[in-house]
Amino acid sequence: MIVVTAPTGGIGSRVVRRLLDDGARVRVVARDPARLTPDVVARAEVVAGSHADPAVVEAACDGADAVFWLVPADPRAASPDEAYGGFARAAIAAFAAGRAGRVVGISGLGRGTAVAGRAGYITATLAMDDLIAATGVPYRALTPPSFMDNTLRQVVPITTQGVLSGPYPPDVPLPLVATGDIAAVAARLLQDDTWRGYEEAPVLGPEDLSYDAQAAIIADVLGRPVAYRQVSPEDFIAARMSGGHSAAMARGLLDMALAKADGLDAGVVRTPATTGPTTFRQWCLEVLKPAASA
Q1: What is the CATH number of the domain that holds 90?
Q2: Residue 95: which domain range?
Q3: Stated pTM of the model
Q4: Within a domain: residue 246?
Q5: What is d(CA 291, CA 284) in angstroms, rounded to the nearest whole number?
């Protein structure tokens, strides 16, 4: 039995689909089961509730061979540490008690870099990984860079204003990856019962791109002008808070962005083993363009 948390999200939903298509026995933990697609409800066991709840975690982990662990960070949390390590307390106790055979989690690049200790969400995620690893459960922490799919959050300004924006410098090449490629690695590891111990598993895309370069590719794919606009730290935080983030979580997002611009994602060498197949152009053609046309 493979347990999947956050099964309606961008990565979790793809993990569930791959596992079910491979014929695996799947149990999902869903805060809102109504968001699950009918075929997932028909083919998987469903545990309703939050995977921060000890009772839900106990029910979900009963007889589990492997657990896919993903924290949907609460934007209203008091701090990134509370959003990640605090959310994971119940699961960490269950893992320490031997309730899961293996765990595959979503983390982030940056361990060992000079900026890892001031990287907001990533710093908190790496601390959570340490807590999970300390339980002794076999653990693979998938460490991707930024997601291509985050660009979908800006589909309206891209299509109506021709603007892609963010706090990053326009000309600094950064790695990015499609969530579908992350899900493929996760599904493979969840079904592989031969690995032991704790390791990080980087999942990169095929290329590094600056935000100016990303905007140029988007423009070419959509057939309309698109330019990148760097926003100030103050404006970035204000926009996040107006959208519902607490001050600490908005600051955590900014600190993560600043750390990425300062080399957070540069500590891993791209190899065939760490590289997914999806280019940003391919992702734009297959995902962004249909969304922009909807």
Answers
A1: 3.40.50.720
A2: 2-148+176-206+267-277
A3: 0.96
A4: no
A5: 9
